[in-house]
Amino acid sequence: MSLSELEGVILGIVSTRQPCTAYAVRSRFEQSPTWGWSSSKGAIYPAISRLIGRAVLESRPAEKGRRKSEMLFLTTKGEGELQVWVSSIREEMGGAPVDPIRTRVNYLAALPIGERQAFLDQCEEAAIAALKRATGTVPDPDAQNRWTLHATALGVQMQIEAKLRWLRIVRELALDQGGLIFPEKMPQEPS
Amino acid sequence: MSLSELEGVILGIVSTRQPCTAYAVRSRFEQSPTWGWSSSKGAIYPAISRLIGRAVLESRPAEKGRRKSEMLFLTTKGEGELQVWVSSIREEMGGAPVDPIRTRVNYLAALPIGERQAFLDQCEEAAIAALKRATGTVPDPDAQNRWTLHATALGVQMQIEAKLRWLRIVRELALDQGGLIFPEKMPQEPS
DNA sequence: GGCTCCATGTAAGGAGTTACATGATTCA
DNA sequence: TGAATCATGTAACTCCTTACATGGAGCC
Prior knowledge:
The structure is a homodimer of 191-residue chains. With 191 residues, chain A is mainly alpha-helical. Chain A has seven helices and two strands, in the order H-H-H-E-E-H-H-H-H. A two-stranded antiparallel sheet of chain A has the order 1-2. In chain A, strand 1 and strand 2 (70-74) form a beta hairpin. In chain A, helix 1 (5-17) packs across helix 3 (41-53), helix 1 (5-17) crosses helix 4 (76-87) and helix 6 (113-136) packs antiparallel against helix 7. At the A-B interface, helix 1, helix 4, helix 5, helix 6 and helix 7 of A face helix 1, helix 4, helix 5, helix 6 and helix 7 of B. Chain B binds a DNA duplex (28 and 28 nucleotides) through helix 2 and helix 3.
């Protein structure tokens, strides 16, 4: 069986930071600027156990004066499976991923007209805050191959910028529909 | 308890298409141009049952000469909960959602240098195909409030275009790192 | 001494995936 | 008459969420 997204990312994290603890892997998820990673212990620790069971990760007790902890390494098999996972681009991955704000805008007509601008304000605030966080993040100094981290951070930034440009267009559309321009064409809410 | 993303979208779909069958709801998910919606029967049908149990959806047998089927409607409570769900913008939603291609680019350094350009070719192809599909989709003629559908479709399109611009930058970065410009600075793979 | 961070788990319950299962209608 | 579409579900399994649970190390 092939790796899930979560398992693939765990292998990726270990590959750029090994040797590292399960705790450190989880910290990476917690610090992710991206919407959609869970980072709950109940997901990460069992996933790592599965990967050890598949012999793609190996754990050895820490040597030096470190605290009681298990250090994780990729096995040779793990290096191979990581490469396979990274290469596994499927056609549908080219599309836009689910975005909770876009999803909600799809049903914006369900909101009373008077609340739509406030809703869009909130979306824009959230996006602006996220953009600030994204441009402010320093790449992990412990990681090797930092150019990929920079590439990814740039990707996050460009996606948020595109979202902001789009939100401003949506505002225009909502104003037109909100009756300010064509009051007689107000769409009836399903309610 | 508040609605999950899946449950919220189901309410949204029913609100713009009611009365409609569970089958029709599921078809919407299947036709979604977006990466991340599952559309499996084992997810949708139980979710609709839950929503009926919560009295936000109501099902009535179809009247007219239609096939044996149950028509879904939003209850008054459902209309309220849909509005609450649409309005529920949280800070972290402003960020970029998880994108499987971006995720993989993060660990692109795990691939042998010779395979990286081919990988990026695949990503670009997938994105171009997705963009073609996204610009080609006709908005659902049965839906009310089609301006929101247009807004959402535009959002999908703009996100994919941003992804394409980004992929071209990543290609440049990968070339630099691939040794064509600074051969002596090739990063060592973790392998 | 108490707070924060490092470090690792488990248990119950809920939700999703995959595969199995059924049957009517429409159209070529 | 067969294929596609409409239509609805369930069962086993896996996985994730939330909450609980524990304990050492470093620091003020």
